[in-house]
Amino acid sequence: MLVGSVEEDCTQYLFLWALITGRFEIAQFLLLTQTDISAGALFAATFLRRLADITRQTTDSEEQRFQAREFELLAVSILEACYFSNKENTMQLLVMERRSYGMLSCMMIASEGDCRDFMQHLACQEYLDRVWAHTLQINSSSSQFLFSLVVGTLCPPLVPYFAEYDESKYGKQIDQPEAEKKRKFTVRCYRRKLKDFYLAPCVRHAYQLLAMVLLFTLFVIDLEVELTFSSPFMCFILGFLIFLATVHTLEFFRIVILNWISFPLFIAEPYNKLIIVAIFGYVSGTTIQILIHTVVPKTYFLEQLSQIFIVMSIFFPFIKILRLLSIGRYIGSKMQMISQMVSNWYFEMED
Fold first, then answer.
1. Which residues have a Cβ under 8 Å from the Cβ of 148 and sit 6 or more positions away?
2. How many angstroms separate the CA atoms of 83 and 106, rounded?
3. Where is this protein chiefly located (predicted)?
4. CA 51 to chain centre
5. Model's pTM, two decimal places?
6. Cβ atoms within 10 Å of 139's Cβ, excluding its own
7. Which contacts (CB < 8 Å, 24+ apart) does range 294-297 have?
8. Half-sphere exposure for 309 (CA within 13 Å, toward CB)
9. Which pLDDT score is estimated for 135?
């Protein structure tokens, strides 16, 4: 949505008219008269790509995609100049909400418009790394981060002493002596570091992945090992599995309520359908398992039926693990490539 002053609105509407009618030279001229040139160029690239998807004539569609790339390269060149001029200001400009473009930032527009050249720029990647690490320092060649995750699981109060933080974000200079740093390690700083550790996206991602792997393992044990309430181990596995499934179910419904728009949009998402099927399968399978060991006589049909329902529910942690791996820093790009290859193969089979 284009929003601004009266003069800016006129320029932006003319800019949009030029894009729609294919007067790209006029659009480039009008773009240079705007205050948010980078955001405008990314908006033009996004708009033209969307327009090319619905354009029937091949020549017009190819021209629109070509011009979209030209606008994107213009935004990349501006980003390049800003990044080498002032790195910190560039980081702020990337996420600054642009009033002229519906309070969207350049990164949000680029993400919506599949502007890969822009998102692959060093400035965007550095900003994403900062967001991913939060206040932590993650060294790929060091095992300290993995060790801090173990400490965070077994003994959370000790995390600030083992995790590696970016001390510049806590008002400390990197070149300060160690003795002075220790004197500044106050209770307030300790609490902040402890909180920041568990708020870091990289930490939350690691713990979510660990929880899903554990849930998947428990599902496999539940399928492969016959349930007997006389075994303390199986009672513990069943109880812990019910606990994890309940927690993830409540978390799913919490997210649904917070992001609720309408039921048709909710049910249209394949992932939401999968979750509903998994919840139904687990509740049904577990209920049948409990009934055949307490109330109903055990039969082959009921036993196999419970196994089928449990198999339906095991797809949830499996798909969740794949989704979590797809956003990982190191394996994510490979997972995305495999997903794209599978999608292309599927569409080729349909054709």
1. 159, 162, 163, 164, 197
2. 14
3. membrane
4. 27
5. 0.72
6. 9
7. none
8. 18
9. 85
Rounded CA gap, 201 and 204, in Å?
Answer: 5
Amino acid at site 191: R
Smallest CA-to-CA distance from 135 within 94, 180, 176, 194 is with: 194
Distant-in-sequence, close-in-space partners of 280: CB < 8 Å, separation ≥ 6: 309, 312
How would DSSP label each residue in 290-335?
Answer: HHHHHTSPP-HHHHHHHHHHHHHHHHHHHHHHHHHHHTSTTTHHHH
For residue range 199-219, what is the model confidence (pLDDT) as tens digits? Answer: 888 888 889 888 888 888 888
22 backbone φψ class: left, alpha, beta (φ>0; ψ -120 to 50): left
CA dihedral 324, 167, 145, 245 (to 10 degrees): -40
Residue 20, token pair as written in the block: 């729609």
3-class secondary-structure state, position 133 = helix
Question: By three-state DSSP, how is residue 260 classified?
Answer: coil
pLDDT in tens, 136-154: 888 766 688 888 989 998 9
Q: Which two tokens stand for residue 184?
A: 């500044």
Structure tokens, 300: 């082959």
Q: Does residue 135 contact residue 168 with C-beta atoms inside 8 Å?
A: no
3-state secondary structure of 98: strand
Query: Residue 158 phi/psi, 5° resolution?
Result: -90, 0
Quick one: pLDDT at residue 1?
47
| CB neighbours of residue 259 within 10 Å | 9
| Residue 140: both structure tokens together | 């790929």
CA distances to 21, 161, 284 from 25, rounded to whole Å, are 11, 59, 63
The values of phi and psi at residue 214, to 5°, are: -65, -40
Longest dimension (CA), the chain: 80
DSSP state of 99: G
- Return the structure tokens found at 223: 């399928």
Under a CB-based contact definition with an 8 Å cutoff, are residues 51 and 67 in contact? no
Task: Give the tokens for residue 331.
Answer: 């394996």
**Residue 27: other Cβ atoms inside 10 A:** 23
Query: What does pLDDT average to over the chain?
Result: 81
User: Can you give the length of the chain in residues?
Assistant: 351
C-alpha closest to that of 313 among 262, 278, 263, 276: 278
